[in-house]
Structures are given as structure tokens and as C-alpha cells.
């Protein structure tokens, strides 16, 4: 068993891929509103990501914060179960 490292700032969920990379879930605020308006799942191995908007902005889908976070977690878990990309080296 290895020691667990702290999650990066802003990460609210993390899934380990088959290739031992991480899929991190964050909330972001691309429109600089008072509240975050985006849940994102990002793979540190292959770089794929999925954005889930939860706030009402022109032309964007609004499924509520809870729904967007749930969708990000579902995508992250599914992706982690299939992705075999290795984590990018730090050096």
C-alpha cells in the first residue's frame, strides 16, 4: 500500500484509472460569477475531460448543480474504468 498524496486545491472528487492516472472533478467559474457554474472531470493520463454546466447562461444547458456534479462523477467513474493511459511524468 502506498501513501496517499493530498488532492490538488479545488479537487472535490478523484477516481483512479486502470493505468494509475487520476480523473479529478472540480467546480469552476468561467464567467466570473459569484458562484461556480461548471463541474469538470479531467483525466491526468490521456487528457480527456467533460464539462457539465449547471448555471443558466446563454446557450448553455442547465441541469442544476447537483445534476452537473452527478454527471461529472458518472463520467469520471466510467472513464477511470476504461482509461489505460499512464500518468504524465513530473520530471
Envelope shape: globular
List SSEs in N-to-C order: EEEEH
Distance between the termini: 23 Å
The helix tally amounts to: 1
Write the layout of secondary structure elements.
Elements: E1 11-16, E2 22-28, E3 38-43, E4 49-53, H1 64-80
How would you portray this structure in words?
The protein has 91 residues and is an alpha+beta fold. It has one domain (11-80). It has one helix spanning 64-80; strands at residues 11-16, 22-28, 38-43, 49-53. Strands 1-2-3-4 form a four-stranded antiparallel beta sheet, with helices on one face. Strand 3 and strand 4 form a beta hairpin. It is globular and about 35 Å long. 26% of the residues are buried.
List keywords for this structure.
single chain, 91 residues, alpha+beta, 4-stranded antiparallel β-sheet, 1 helix, 4 strands, 26% strand
Amino acid at each position: 500500500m502506498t501513501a496517499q498524496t493530498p488532492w490538488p486545491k479545488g479537487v472535490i472528487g478523484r477516481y483512479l484509472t486502470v493505468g494509475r492516472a487520476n480523473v479529478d472533478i472540480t467546480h469552476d467559474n468561467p464567467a466570473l460569477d459569484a458562484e461556480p457554474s461548471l463541474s469538470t472531470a479531467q483525466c491526468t493520463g490521456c487528457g480527456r475531460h467533460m464539462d457539465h454546466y449547471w448555471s443558466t447562461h446563454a446557450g448553455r444547458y442547465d441541469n442544476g448543480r447537483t445534476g452537473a456534479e452527478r454527471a461529472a462523477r458518472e463520467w469520471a467513474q466510467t472513464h477511470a474504468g476504461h482509461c489505460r493511459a499512464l500518468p504524465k511524468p513530473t520530471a
